[in-house]
Design the sequence.
């Protein structure tokens, strides 16, 4: 299975910059450990994003948009699938990806305060089959309302399993993307298989 | 371009005493098939059958509606399921077949699955076992293993292999996840066994 990501930036002046579709370097450790449990029914432990040892069972990353600050309440008032930080995430760290990575190096919090970027919903497409390929995508839109510029250097996918969150994908961008105040960013991950 | 998740298979043929007759080359599996990616879409996207029914074709060529929402604990955390087939069960886990019809993305079953047993043309299926995941600097991997024994009294030739998932919610369904036609068919004489190792690998 191939995993790709593509970034589109909509500048505050209306110009769109579309970056090359790039193969994601890295499903990281938790992805495989979760998949192993799902297919073998044998529990294995790996680090969640807090670096605590947990047993992942299944992964969900369909979180809606919102700000990190409201998620704690969201967690208790709604289903726990709606925890803010699951889904496509962004960060400012650029340390090379390691297979043992359990979190983004420096995740950007969802919000409008200094250094924060608003996260919108994760949107999935249906599986599209065009022989010999089958694929689906998940995308998320981000908006910089912080009042200043922020440079995105890493992206990834955080997935919920029970009450814990795991990083299953991490990529460091070969070309960092700087978002000025008012800019939007759309990140799309494509999961594709080929027969 | 390198895959982000790669599936490999390797076959090892042994005589009735357990001596290795031939260790075949480790091949990259050609084909996860569409059910694999459809199943993960349902999981990752937390697809709710009541709001957005999602159907996946099972191994009997029937489309089945599956759902995760509201039942997430049942979906993956049951006592059995996945690929963990018990001895003699050919409904799921690693399976072998005798046909060599080319693989397509829409395959939902082996073309001609070999039945469990000791009659002509049959093989005895072992329990599916697993090697726990390991991680090093290059990535992570784990394996699924099943042994097939020929007690039929005659030769049996394997031409295709596959992986079938056991889904338990909302009902028992079996979904083909992968299928490969062997570049070189493997013929087992009476008393011989073949071990099928599937390796799941991610590499950074």
Sequence:
């Amino acid at each position: 299975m191939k995993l790709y990501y593509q970034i589109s930036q909509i500048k505050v002046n209306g110009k769109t910059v579309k970056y090359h579709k790039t193969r994601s370097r890295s499903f990281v450790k938790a992805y495989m450990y979760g998949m192993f449990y799902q297919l073998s029914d044998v529990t294995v432990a790996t680090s969640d994003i807090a670096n605590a040892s947990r047993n992942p069972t299944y992964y969900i990353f369909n979180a809606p948009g919102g700000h990190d600050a409201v998620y704690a309440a969201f967690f208790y008032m709604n289903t726990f699938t709606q925890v803010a930080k699951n889904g496509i995430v962004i960060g400012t760290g650029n340390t090379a990806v390691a297979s043992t990575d359990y979190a983004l190096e420096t995740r950007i919090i969802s919000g409008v305060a200094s250094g924060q970027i608003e996260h919108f919903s994760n949107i999935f497409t249906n599986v599209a089959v065009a022989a010999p390929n089958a694929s689906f995508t998940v995308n998320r839109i981000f908006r910089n309302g912080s009042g200043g510029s922020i440079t995105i250097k890493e992206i990834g996918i955080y997935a919920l399993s029970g009450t814990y969150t795991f990083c299953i994908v991490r990529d460091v961008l070969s070309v960092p993307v700087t978002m000025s105040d008012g800019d939007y960013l759309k990140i799309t991950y494509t999961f594709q298989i080929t027969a | 371009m390198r895959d982000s998740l790669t599936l490999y298979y390797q076959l090892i043929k042994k005589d009735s005493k357990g001596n290795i007759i031939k260790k075949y080359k480790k091949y990259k599996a050609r084909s996860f098939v569409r059910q694999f990616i459809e199943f993960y879409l349902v999981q990752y996207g937390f697809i709710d059958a009541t709001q957005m029914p999602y159907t996946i074709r099972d191994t009997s060529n029937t489309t089945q509606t599956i759902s995760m929402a509201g039942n997430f604990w049942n979906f993956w955390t049951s006592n059995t399921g996945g690929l963990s087939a018990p001895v003699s069960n050919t409904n799921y886990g690693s399976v072998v077949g005798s046909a060599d019809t080319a693989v397509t993305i829409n395959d939902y079953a082996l073309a001609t699955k070999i039945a469990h047993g000791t009659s002509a043309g049959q093989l005895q299926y072992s329990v599916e076992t697993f090697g726990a995941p390991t991680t090093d600097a290059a990535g992570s991997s784990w394996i699924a293993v099943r042994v097939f024994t020929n007690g039929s009294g005659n030769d049996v030739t394997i031409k295709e292999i596959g992986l079938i998932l056991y889904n338990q919610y909302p009902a028992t369904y079996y979904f083909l996840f992968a299928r490969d036609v062997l570049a070189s068919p493997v013929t087992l004489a009476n008393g011989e066994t073949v071990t099928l190792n599937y390796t799941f690998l991610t590499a950074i």
